[in-house]
Structure prediction request, 345 residues.
Amino acid sequence: MGNKVYCGLDFHKNVSELCVMDFEGKILDRVRLAADKVVTYLSNKPEYHIGIESSGGVFDITAKLEATGHRVTIINASQFRGIGITGKKNDMRDAEALATALRLGFVPEVHKKTLYSRQMKSLLASRDIAVKTRTTLTNHVRGIMREYGLPMPAGATAFWEQVSGRLKEIECEIVRGVLGGLVDQATTLKDEENKIDLALQAITKNDERVKRLETIPGVGPLTAIAFVATLDDVSRFKDAKHLASYLGLTPRENSSGGRVKFGSITKCGPELLRRYLIHGARSTFRYAPKPENRIRCWAAGVEKRSGTNKAVVALAHKNARICFALLRDETDFGLRIMKDKKAVA
Prediction:
């Protein structure tokens, strides 16, 4: 214990600050380095326990530092309030605060995602940007065409079927050319979206976890991939309740003096997965027949008591917990339902 050395690394894109501290809190070294020199510098040092604040590129440098023999802890910045102590925030103080947190054992740690998980999340994020940009472009074209008395029908299918012909009805050649260029960009983005979908299928084709989650009503391929990419390791959550809280699907609490008050869901955690779960739950409400779907029947009861929107979120919450249970127990949804029925009988 007496030989343990702590290193706070305030990592940035261009320049990083290091603060090295012994177990008694004595500062042994302070170094300011270019970001691309950090790994080389630390590779020549004895084993450090390095603390680094979660930010962009942190998983890559963590893997490189661990390969040199150091122990690295990624600290959750939103829960770590020691950064900038005494009201004088700079890189040097941030690095010192990180080293102090390691020495004192106060480390709200972030899970180190595997390369496979990061690859899936990169593809999902790229797809999301392509979809949002394409939607923005097509909605813009709709709005402009309406100004010229050419309203487009609702729905993406009808838009793509009619947009080429309706553009020809615009008299101004300049406006027609600009809108045509925007439609071409939207078409390219649609093609990119399809390519990313194929890439996601290729990278997850042998992942039994994804196939298992797809057996749940309301959980499609994208939701299943996003869930596996976010969860990464099922054992890092104590139970399904903790997972639902991590995903931001639990009510916000503001209680005091024995008075318990709940509000809307917290919406913390990964927004993309939470959105996919809610969209999947909404599709279950629309298309799943109640007599044949036990969970849909349960959601119908919630809808009757609290309204459709709350019931949709409640169903998304339940689906998230079911996903966790299937991955933990390594079973399929249909088999689990049969098991539950036998237990009730």
The radius of gyration is 26 Å. The chain has a mean pLDDT of 89. DSSP finds 13 helices and seven strands in the chain. Residues 5-104 form a domain with the Nucleotidyltransferase; domain 5 fold (CATH 3.30.420.40).
